[in-house]
Hints:
Oligomer: heterodimer
Largest interface: A-B, 22 and 25 residues
Number of strands of chain A: 11
Number of domains of chain A: 1
Largest sheet of chain A: 7 strands, mixed
Number of helices of chain B: 0
CATH class of chain B: Mainly Beta
CATH superfamily of chain A: Immunoglobulins
Amino acid sequence: NAGVTQTPKFRILKIGQSMTLQCAQDMNHNYMYWYRQDPGMGLKLIYYSVGAGITDKGEVPNGYNVSRSTTEDFPLRLELAAPSQTSVYFCASSYGESTEQFFGPGTRLTVL
Amino acid sequence: QQQVKQSPQSLIVQKGGISIINCAYENTAFDYFPWYQQFPGKGPALLIAIRPDVSEKKEGRFTISFNKSAKQFSLHIMDSQPGDSATYFCAASMSSGYSTLTFGKGTMLLVSP
Lengths: 112, 113
C-alpha cells in the first residue's frame, strides 16, 4: 500500500494564479482531510470529507475549494493564490472519526 | 472556539533524560487525545493516543498521563534519545458528530547527545 500520496512536492505560484493539490489514498478510508502547517502554528484544518460526495469546511477554508468524487481522491483547489497561502499542505485520511489519521508527505507551496 | 494549548514551544533534553510536554483543553466533550510525531520534511505520524477511561497509557518509552478533572494531558518520553528529536503535537477530538482533531501548536524537541 502506498498510503496517502500528494503531488506536487513543491510549487511556486504567482499571485492570482490557481492550482490543484492532489491527494490520494489506497486504504479505503472514508474520512479525508486537508491541513495547512505554518511555523509555530500547528496544523489548521482547511476542509474535510466523511465520504464520497460529502465535504465540509474546517477552521480556515477561505480561498480554497475541495471535491470528493471518489473514495480515493480528495483534491484541494486554490483560486487566485495570495501570499497568505504560502504554507505546507498536508492531506490525511482515517477510517473514521477519532481514529488514527495517516498523513501524506506534504506539498510546500510558495506564493510570490 | 475549541482550543488545545501546548507547552513548551521548544525543549532541549540531554540523552537519557525525561522529556515532558503538556497540553490543556477546554472542551469537556473531548474524549480522544492523540500525540503525533513529525520529523523535518515529513508528515505527522501517530505516536500514542489515550481515551479518558484510563489515566495513563504506556507504549515503550512513551507515556501519556491524563488528568480529566484538570483537563490536562501530557507526554513523557523516558530515556530520551537523539532519534526522538522531532516536533510533537497533541490533539483532541470528540467521538461523535463528525468531530475533527484540534491540534496544539507543537513542541520542537531536541535531544542532545
